[in-house]
């Protein structure tokens, strides 16, 4: 397993290097391997597939444009994360400015879910949408993508203790927002 | 599933986020690749073709270029005035620096938009553009963080001095700032980039640009701080274990309190001892 991870890391570094030299095929391989998670992250943060489509496209195009300036090629994923989160932040800011109403999470529910579930999901949606983008992002990475704290710290480029603290703060904020609605 | 705050389990959060997220449209990858194919990349430098010229020609060309440059600078400085920073942004920038120096968190918050962020240099202290800064944005909304950060500024004795500012776009202004950390006896040059939404700051990025200012007021630059670390490890290894952070943290050399066992007073005393020995 460790050997396989090391092989993938080397392959990724080679792809990043080639993409930084203008190789579109190499960049496509990098995007293809990350698109699903990037889109699920953005759609969970924003609660809108249409906004997530724009955000993810913008983030990958910006990544391509600035890639030659990325000094440490091993930090590609941390950097991509940063691009996505910053663009999610911009999208929410634009949404607030244009006074759009955020999508209700209950609209995603399957038909077999009970009314009770719909009520619970709606409360969680309201609470989640009051959180900052950073808090949403951490909860998505840890709880949706199931990334352990140590790996998350590495991916975000911050110490493990800080990651734990931030996760705890995000979770507390969500609880507080739920309580505010009771 | 009725969600109550006292029953907010990991599974409930996971289930909620699953219902909220979606898989990408199959056409998205094609859209990205098509756009990327038509988008040029930004390069940090422009490759130059090597020129082979005789030495004397090179000397003449160099002299001519030097004279032309000096002339252009002289004329340019008379004719070209930098774009002024709008007064409303200037006032906010002064308020931000003032609030940090006064450790006045409510005043600092009042200069920021509701979802304002502070961007710190990550492990690579020299990181500059968006392309190089890693995940180091801290929201002012983040529970506990602004208080801890402001406490750090107080404990390390920060005094920030605002230098010249220039607009980078309608909503972005970059300023030269000297930061003096009196407890660490440390002085460095930074660039603070303010992003605005109206008169409020949406993001403030603080990046070190001069780790070793030549005409500084305080005795240490970052290079000297590393010398103090080396001296401490050599002369007081046990104390070094406790006083120095075990690895680089988000503030690099600023010894974020969260990652430290020792107090700023102990660290300050050790630096003073080092300075006395150095003399």
Which descriptors would you attach to this protein?
heterodimer; A: 182 residues; Rna Polymerase Sigma Factor, Chain: A; Arc Repressor Mutant, subunit A; 2 domains; globular; B: 279 residues; alpha+beta; Nuclear Transport Factor 2, Chain: A; 6-stranded mixed sheet
CATH architecture of the largest domain in chain A, by name, is: Orthogonal Bundle
Structural class of chain B: alpha+beta
Any idea what the shape of chain A is?
globular
- Write down the domain tally of chain A: 2
Q: Can you count the beta strands of chain A?
A: 0
Average of the residue pLDDT scores of chain A: 81
Order of helices and strands of chain B: HHHHHEEHEEEEHHH
* CATH superfamily (homologous) name of the largest domain in chain A: RNA polymerase sigma factor, region 2, helix turn helix motif
The quaternary organization reads as heterodimer
Instruction: Profile the largest sheet of chain B.
Output: 6 strands, mixed
Structural category of chain A is mainly alpha
Q: What portion of the residues of chain B fall into strands of 2 or more residues?
A: 15-25%
Give the low-confidence spans of chain A: 99-115
Helix percentage range of chain A: over 70%
Instruction: Please work out how many helical segments of chain B DSSP would assign.
Output: 9
What is the name of the CATH class of one domain in chain B? Alpha Beta
How many runs of DSSP E, i.e. beta strands of chain B?
A: 6
Helix fraction of chain B, binned, reads: 40-55%
CATH topology tier name of one domain in chain B: Nuclear Transport Factor 2, Chain: A
> What's the overall geometry of chain B?
extended
Average pLDDT over all residues of chain B: 76
């Amino acid at each position: 397993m460790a050997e396989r991870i090391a092989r993938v890391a080397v392959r990724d570094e080679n792809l990043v290097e080639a993409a930084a030299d203008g190789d579109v095929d190499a960049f496509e391989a990098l995007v293809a391997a990350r698109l699903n998670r990037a889109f699920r992250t953005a759609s969970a943060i924003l609660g809108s597939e249409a906004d997530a489509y724009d955000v993810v496209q913008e983030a990958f195009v910006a990544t391509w444009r600035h890639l030659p300036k990325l000094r440490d090629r091993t930090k590609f994923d941390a950097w991509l994360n940063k691009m996505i989160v910053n663009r999610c932040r911009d999208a929410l800011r634009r949404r607030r400015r244009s006074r759009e109403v955020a999508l209700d999470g209950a609209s995603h529910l399957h038909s077999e879910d009970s009314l009770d579930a719909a009520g619970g999901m709606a409360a969680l949606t309201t609470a989640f949408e009051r959180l900052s983008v950073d808090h949403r992002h951490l909860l998505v990475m840890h709880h949706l993508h199931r990334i352990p704290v140590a790996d998350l710290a590495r991916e975000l480029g911050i110490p493990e203790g800080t990651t734990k603290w931030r996760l705890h703060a995000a979770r507390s904020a969500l609880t507080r927002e739920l309580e505010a609605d009771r | 599933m009725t969600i109550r705050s006292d029953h907010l389990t990991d599974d409930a959060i996971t289930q909620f986020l699953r219902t909220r997220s979606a898989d990408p449209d199959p056409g998205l990858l094609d859209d990205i690749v098509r756009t990327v194919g038509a988008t040029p990349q930004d390069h940090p430098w422009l490759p130059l073709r090597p020129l082979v010229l005789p030495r004397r020609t090179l000397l003449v060309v160099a002299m001519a270029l030097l004279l032309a440059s000096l002339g252009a600078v002289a004329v340019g400085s008379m004719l070209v005035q930098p774009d002024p920073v709008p007064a409303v942004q200037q006032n906010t920038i002064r308020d931000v620096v003032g609030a940090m120096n006064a450790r006045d968190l409510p005043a600092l918050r009042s200069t920021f938009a509701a979802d304002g962020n502070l961007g710190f240099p990550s492990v690579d202290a020299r990181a500059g553009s968006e392309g190089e800064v890693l995940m180091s944005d801290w929201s002012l909304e983040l529970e506990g963080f602004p208080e801890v950060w402001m406490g750090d500024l107080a404990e390390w004795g920060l005094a920030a001095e605002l230098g010249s500012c220039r607009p980078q776009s309608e909503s972005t202004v970059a300023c030269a700032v000297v930061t003096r950390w009196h407890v660490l006896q440390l002085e460095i040059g930074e660039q603070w980039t303010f992003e605005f939404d109206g008169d409020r700051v949406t993001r403030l990025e603080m990046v070190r640009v001069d780790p070793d200012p030549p005409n500084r007021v305080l005795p240490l630059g970052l290079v000297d701080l590393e010398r103090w670390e080396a001296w401490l490890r050599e002369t007081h290894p046990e104390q070094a274990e406790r006083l120095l952070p075990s690895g680089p943290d988000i503030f690099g050399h600023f010894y974020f309190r969260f990652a430290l066992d020792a107090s700023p007073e102990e660290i300050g005393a050790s630096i003073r001892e080092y300075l006395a020995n150095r003399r």
